[in-house]
From TrEMBL, chain A:
Keyword annotations of the record: Sigma factor, Transcription, Transcription regulation
Identification of the protein by name: RNA polymerase sigma-70 factor (ECF subfamily)
Transcription regulation as UniProt keyword: yes
InterPro entries in the record: RNA_pol_sigma-70-like, RNA_pol_sigma-70_dom, RNA_pol_sigma70_r2, RNA_pol_sigma70_r4_t2, RNA_pol_sigma_r2, RNA_pol_sigma_r3/r4-like, WH-like_DNA-bd_sf
Family: Belongs to the sigma-70 factor family. ECF subfamily.
UniProt-listed CDD domains: Sigma70_r4
Domain RNA polymerase sigma factor 70 region 4 type: 136-187
Domain RNA polymerase sigma-70 region: 29-90
NCBIfam families, alphabetized: sigma70-ECF
TrEMBL record, chain B:
InterPro entries: Anti_sigma_zinc_sf, Znf_put
A Pfam short name: zf-HC2
Keywords: Transcription, Transcription regulation
Superkingdom of origin organism: Bacteria
Positions of the Putative zinc-finger domain: 3-36
Protein name in the entry: Zinc finger protein
Length: 203, 88
C-alpha cells in the first residue's frame, strides 16, 4: 500500500529515493503491460516505460494534482507510447466509439430470421471446467487483441482500475471505454471457448 | 430480447450502465435462458482469469538506470538533463 499522493509527490520533489523506488516497483509492471498495447516489441515497451519515468522525474514539479498521481503518470505513458506507436506505424485513432464494428459473438451461433426463435442460441455454449493451463491461453488472447481493446482490458480487468480512471488516463468517453472493454472481453472469452472445444478441456 | 442482443449488453450490465428498461429485459432474459446464463458465467470467469495474470517487471539494468537518473536529477543543481520533454 502506497502513501497518499501528497506524500509521494513531496518525496519525489525532494529527491527521496525510497519514494521513487516504491513507485517504480509498484507501477512499472503494469506500465509495461499497458505500453505493449501501443508498440511492437517488448524492448520498445520497456523503453516507453523508461522514458515515462524519466519524464516523471523531470516533470514532477509541474504536477498540479488535478488527477491522481498514477493517472498523471499513466497519461504520460500513453502519450509517450502513442508517439512511439506512430513511429512504428501501429497507432489507430481513439476517437470513434465503435471502431472495430460487428457483433462480438459469431452470428452463426444464433438462429436466423427464417427459423423459430430468431436471434436465440442455436446451441448453448458448452460448459467450462477451469484448469491451470488457462492463464497462458488468456495471456495469448490478450496479446492478440486490437490495440485499443487490449489497453482498456489491461487497465480494467488485469490491473483493476475503475472505468473513471481509465477514461481519465486515455481521455476517452465512458461509452467508448465500455465498447472497447466489451469487445476485448468477448474476444478473450471466444479464445477460451475455442481452447475448451479443441483441447479436450473437459467440456 | 434475443440471445444475440443479450451477449452485446453483458459489459454494460456488469457496469450498471443499462437504463432501467434494458436492465429489466436483460434480467428477465437471464432468468429464462440457460444459454445466456452460461454465457454470462463464462464472461465473468474470463474477467476473473484476466485478473490472475502474473505481474511483469522491468529488467534490472533498466531499473538501475532509472534509479541513477533519479539520483542525478534529484541532487544536481546544474541540471545534467534537459527540460521535461514528454509530459504535457
Amino acid at each position: 500500500m502506497l502513501p497518499a499522493d501528497k506524500v509521494l509527490v513531496a518525496g519525489l520533489r525532494s529527491g527521496d529515493e525510497a519514494t521513487f523506488v516504491s513507485l517504480l516497483d509498484a507501477w512499472s509492471g503494469s506500465m509495461i503491460r499497458l505500453a505493449r498495447g501501443f508498440v511492437s516489441t517488448d524492448a520498445s515497451a520497456e523503453e516507453v516505460v523508461q522514458d515515462t519515468w524519466l519524464a516523471v522525474i523531470r516533470g514532477i514539479d509541474g504536477f498540479r494534482g488535478t488527477a491522481s498521481l498514477r493517472t498523471w503518470v499513466y497519461r504520460i505513458l500513453v502519450n509517450t507510447a502513442k508517439k512511439r506507436g506512430v513511429k512504428e506505424k501501429r497507432t489507430v485513432p481513439w476517437t470513434s466509439v465503435d471502431p472495430d464494428g460487428g457483433p462480438t459473438v459469431d452470428p452463426s451461433r444464433f438462429r436466423g430470421a427464417d427459423e423459430g426463435f430468431p436471434g436465440h442460441w442455436r446451441e448453448f455454449p458448452e460448459p467450462w471446467v477451469l484448469d491451470g493451463e488457462l492463464r497462458q491461453v488468456v495471456g495469448r488472447a490478450l496479446d492478440d487483441l486490437p490495440e485499443r481493446q487490449r489497453v482498456v482490458v489491461v487497465l480494467r480487468d488485469v490491473e483493476g482500475h475503475t472505468s473513471e480512471e481509465v477514461c481519465a488516463m486515455l481521455e476517452i468517453s465512458p461509452a467508448n471505454q465500455r465498447v472497447l472493454l466489451h469487445r476485448g472481453r468477448a474476444a478473450v472469452r471466444a479464445c477460451l471457448e475455442t481452447y475448451f472445444a479443441t483441447s479436450g478441456g473437459t467440456a | 430480447m434475443t440471445c444475440e442482443e443479450f451477449v452485446e449488453l453483458v459489459t454494460a450490465f456488469l457496469e450498471g450502465a443499462l437504463d432501467e428498461a434494458a436492465e429489466r429485459a436483460f434480467v428477465e432474459h437471464l432468468a429464462e435462458c440457460q444459454g445466456c446464463e452460461r454465457y454470462l458465467d463464462q464472461f465473468r470467469a474470463t474477467i476473473a482469469e484476466l485478473g490472475e495474470l502474473p505481474p511483469e517487471s522491468l529488467p534490472d539494468e533498466t531499473r538501475e538506470r532509472l534509479l541513477d537518473a533519479f539520483r542525478t536529477w534529484g541532487h544536481a543543481t546544474d541540471g545534467p538533463a534537459g527540460p521535461p520533454e514528454h509530459h504535457r
